[in-house]
Amino acid sequence: MIILKDLSKFYPPDVHALKGVNLHIKPKEFICLVGKSGTGKTTLVKLMIAEEKASKGRIIIGGWDITDIRNREIPILRRQIGVVFQDFKLLEKKTVFENIAFALQVSGISLVRMKEIIPQVLKIVGLEGKQDRYPVQLSGGEQQRVALARALVHRPKILLADEPTGNLDTQNTKEIMELLLKINDFGTTVILVTHNQDVVNSINKRVITIDSGKIISDQKKGKYIL
Amino acid sequence: MSISSIRQIIVFAWQSFWRNFWLSIVTITIIVLAFISVNFLLILNILSDNAIKVVQNKVDVSLYFNHDASESQVLETQIYLSAVPQIDDITYISQAQALEQFKQKHQGDADIIQSLNELQENPLGATLIIKAKDIGDYPDIIDVVNNSKYNNLIQDKSFDDNEVFIDRIKEVSDNVNRVGLIASGIFILISLLIVFNTIRVAIYTHREEISIMKLVGATNWYIRSPFLLESIIYGLLGVAIAMAVTYPILGLIQPYVNSFFLDSTFNLAQYFSQNIIKILGVEFLITVLLNVLSSIFAMRKYLKV
Fold it and tell me: How much is the ipTM here?
């Protein structure tokens, strides 16, 4: 369960990125967070992974109030939340295996265990046999799959996908969306941040629309309304 | 922290070292220069200490007694002075011994020997040679002698020339030490700034990895450790290279040391070899402390975790 209570974020001198946002997200839900550019979607993501601190209000994730989270607790939080971005954030000089292993190394997982986990995750994202390739040898869709695999290796309860299809063509967008739905079917809460109307309309999931830092619509099985 | 994490931290630090190779070389070079200058300061201190020790061993106060002072009076003076705490040793040279020494010293000078033989009695008085526990004690000892009832038995006292010589050694060594300290201080300050800058650049070149590390839940220490380790590698390599450069120079200096300390067998290289663990230990400790401090400042400023 993710609970946002009266959440606000101000940036000096006078930017109000979020204004009193209230939101309840149930476990295993699939949420589409939509809105125009600069309306506060990414700020919301940053607050949920404690990259930014809220100016007002509370953020509770899985019963854990992370509003005033201590610095040393942030890594624990981030291992429970997988994050993918539009620009994939892959290391060009590392292979697919090494990119995913990078996430496991920080938790002190042994190489033997990595060799067990990584092929399983690669199978889930449909990249079997490509573990020795470098990002430049992969298509955009495949690179985003690697990023998803990296986000999933910690078996997070929540997956935050911030514009994951922003750099992809229609076919790759469709495949990534199918993958996100599949991940959701496995029991992971997925929060998809997007302004892609077609994507939102095609999956028929809960749609939360943000405009000027406020939630202006919350539809159970919604459509892109802006 | 698991073995896998430690291995990864070492790999990361090593990568950073090679990725900014030329910057790493410059950093190490400055640390090498700093510690070569520290080593020279050390050599200078060792040499001046040794020089003072050699001269101190040669320093004594000779009390030349009047020709008519009796042996019992001289020995009474010796007993009296033995009680002075600053005095380490008193050697008694009788009138006969003094004459014998005088003859030996001037045995090539026929005129002096002949004049001596013409005299009916021994013209020389007895002598007490006094060694102090510390070079600074001689003025006190002379004061004690001057104020004692035995002073009128003493014809002459010799001391002043050696004192001037020691003061000169101390003065020269203090001046060179001062210059050396300033030079070492400047080099150490430069190496601190260079290490700071190198770590800043390392953070910049690793910004992608760092952002991903943060994203996937790396702890602050996991992110910071490679940079700390990198700065420690610079320090350790710098100190080791500085010592490797210093050693052959010790061999080059040795002939000059030998000619300066004529009758002493002081060997610089041997001194360094005997104290190498202590010297390297202290230098490693200093460089690790300074470099860690410098990289912590760089991380606090440029690495937001």
Answer: 0.82
CB-nearest to B4 from A77, A91, A110 is: A110
Q: What pLDDT does B111 receive?
A: 83
Would you call A108 and B219 a contact, using CB atoms and an 8 Å cutoff?
no
List the 173-212 stretch of B: residues with Cβ below 8 A of A.
208-209, 211-212
CB-based burial label for B304 (10 Å; 0-12, 13-18, 19+): exposed
Contact B80/A at CB under 8 A = no
* Better pLDDT: B52 or A57: A57
What three-state secondary structure class fits B47? helix
pLDDT digits (tens, 9 = 90+) for A86-104: 899 999 889 999 999 988 8
Running DSSP on this structure, what letter comes out for residue B136?
G
Q: Give the C-alpha separation, A140 to B198, whole Å.
A: 35
Q: Does the structure show a pLDDT above 80 at B116?
A: no
Question: Touching check for B2 and chain A: CB below 8 Å?
Answer: yes
Residue B262 scores a pLDDT above 70? no
The answer, for A98 touching chain B at a CB cutoff of 8 Å, is no
Tell me whether B79 touches chain A (CB under 8 Å): no
A47-61, A163-177, B75-89, B187-201: least confidently modelled range: B187-201
pTM above 0.90, yes or no: no
How many angstroms separate the CA atoms of A128 and A119, rounded?
7
Domains assigned to chain B = 3-55+166-302 (no CATH), 60-158 (3.30.70.3040)
Q: Which residue of B has its CA nearest to A150?
A: B216
Q: Residue A11: enclosing H or E segment and its boundaries?
A: strand A2-11
Question: In chain B, what residues touch A89 (CB-CB under 8 Å)?
Answer: 208, 211-212, 215
Strand partners, B64: B127, B156
Over residues B274-301, the pLDDT tens digits come to: 999 999 999 999 999 998 998 888 888 8
Interchain CB distance below 8 Å, B217 and A71: no
pLDDT in tens, A173-183: 999 999 999 99
- State the Cα–Cα distance between residues B226 and B232, nearest whole angstrom: 10
Which of B134, B137, B138 shows the shortest CA–CA distance to B61?
A: B138
